[in-house]
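Milestone M4 deliverable, item 7.
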Amino acid sequence: MGVPQSELTALAALIATAEDCLKIAQSTDRTAVTTAQCKAAFDALTEKMRFIKSHYFLKPPLKDEDFVLLELKPSDHTKTAVPIPVNQPGLEIIK
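Output delivered:
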């Protein structure tokens, strides 16, 4: 389980862009354009983070080792036997 280096490089670039835009947006030279650019940079960063999460952490197949690495309980593949019903449940309507 791992994120490809190309995705990590793209994420690092988006983080750097968002940090630069935030510095400009927090300065006294802020304009509506810089605020919009900052919002667009953070939207792109959020989209990339969600993409990485959904494509590399939530998609199966995860092995038992991956669950342990993520500190999750491995899934139990043992099926529990369900007995065959002996009789049918009934319903009595009282008026």
